[in-house]
């Protein structure tokens, strides 16, 4: 009887090990494929522009096409801009890297009043060898080229590759799987949440459903399929519901309308369907708390698990008290991190507070965009604090000795 039980246990352990090995192989293949794809995008301009779209159909007679090019030479402007004068264009010779025109060597114009390329003192912020985005207007015999922006996307892709390699080298399998989970989260944002909101869906409801779709795969990808991850996931889902309630209370209590940024007003103006801007604000708050929740719930679950393994006689109450002690230390550092993250994103607000002398301080503080950032910070920090007791209680209940629970 004992021999049979031992064999069954050994077989179960062996199958679990085989499944884990196969999972790591699959994750490795997916990770290598992602790395290869990113490298191709970063080094091959034609593939990048062709895959992500270079032609823009704006339903007008004039066609617009975007290219990436390299600056060869720059002609200095003949004269500086003076008051009330019409700013002249600066000719720039450029080699198009994704040339769909007959000649890859073109002359593009830079507006002298464009502060992205020309300083107020006349210094040109372009140099030979710089990558730029070129806008082609027209086709055939009537073509004009303009320098639209600095080309940054391929450098950004190289930064992503470095991030991926650092995660793979120092975190191994978990680093690669976390990166895959991150890509899944981005795909859900781009392919589900954004189209649903632009199509007229309720932003808060769409963000809530999307959050569930983000949390489940990202947590299992990052931490593996285990009891720990499942407990952390259930805790995260519970806190997300709490976040929705708190966000709704604070947004309605402060009378926010979701008009705290120019981007939101711009989105509302070009969207074909009316967008619930207040719901959009609520949805943004919900999604913004997901990353921090993952950190807290997984860490607290792991603490309770390890305490239980170290001393199997610890009661549920003892597990809760000891794990909460660790959680409080974690919270104090994370609140500071969260507040500074929001403060960094809203740094212009602090400049406004210091520089604005034309209005009373309370009038400035009463503005919607400031109250929005305040509400985001309060909701995020409050849910962060409440995450520790919720997760710790659930984990302590599950990991406590079964005799005590019964």
TrEMBL record:
Pfam families: YibE_F (PF07907). The keyword Nucleus does not apply. InterPro entries: YibE_F. The keyword Transmembrane applies. Keywords: Membrane, Transmembrane, Transmembrane helix. The chain crosses the membrane at residues 21-42, 153-172, 179-198, 204-222, 231-255, 334-355, 375-400. It comes from the Bacteria. This is YibE/F family protein.
């Amino acid at each position: 009887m004992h021999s049979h039980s031992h064999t069954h246990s050994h077989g179960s352990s062996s199958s679990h090990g085989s499944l884990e090995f196969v999972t790591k192989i699959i994750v490795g293949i997916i990770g290598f494929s992602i790395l290869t794809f990113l490298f191709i995008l970063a080094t091959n301009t034609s593939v990048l522009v062709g895959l992500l779209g270079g032609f823009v159909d704006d339903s007008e007679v004039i066609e617009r096409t975007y290219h990436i090019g390299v600056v060869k030479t720059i002609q200095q402007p003949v004269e500086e801009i003076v008051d009330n004068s019409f700013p002249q264009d600066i000719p720039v010779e450029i080699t198009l890297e994704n040339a769909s025109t007959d000649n890859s060597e073109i002359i593009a114009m830079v507006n002298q009043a464009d502060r992205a390329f020309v300083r107020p003192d006349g210094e040109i912020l372009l140099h030979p060898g710089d990558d730029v985005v070129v806008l082609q207007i027209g086709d055939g015999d009537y073509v004009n080229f303009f320098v639209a922006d600095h080309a940054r996307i391929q450098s950004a892709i190289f930064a992503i590759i470095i991030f991926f390699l650092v995660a793979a080298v120092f975190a191994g399998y978990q680093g690669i799987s976390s990166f895959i989970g991150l890509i899944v989260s981005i795909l859900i944002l781009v392919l589900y949440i954004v189209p649903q909101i632009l199509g007229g869906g309720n932003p808060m409801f769409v963000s809530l459903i999307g959050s569930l779709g983000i949390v489940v795969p990202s947590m299992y990808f990052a931490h593996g399929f285990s009891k720990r991850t499942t407990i952390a996931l259930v805790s995260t889902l519970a806190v997300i519901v709490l976040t929705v309630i708190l966000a709704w209370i604070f947004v309605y209590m402060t009378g926010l309308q979701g008009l705290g940024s120019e981007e939101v007003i711009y989105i509302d103006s070009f969207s074909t369907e009316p967008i619930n801007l207040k719901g959009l604000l609520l949805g943004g708050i919900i999604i913004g708390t997901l990353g921090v929740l993952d950190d807290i719930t997984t860490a607290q679950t792991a603490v309770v698990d390890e305490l239980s393994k170290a001393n199997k006689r610890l009661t549920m109450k003892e597990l809760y008290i000891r794990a909460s002690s660790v959680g409080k230390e974690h919270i104090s550092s994370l609140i500071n991190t969260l507040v500074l993250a929001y403060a960094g994103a809203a740094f212009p607000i602090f400049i406004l507070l210091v520089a604005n002398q034309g209005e009373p301080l309370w009038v400035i503080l009463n503005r919607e965009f400031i109250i929005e950032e305040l509400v985001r910070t309060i909701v995020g920090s409050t849910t962060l604090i409440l995450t520790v007791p919720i997760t710790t209680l659930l984990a302590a209940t599950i990991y406590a000795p079964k005799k005590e629970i019964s």
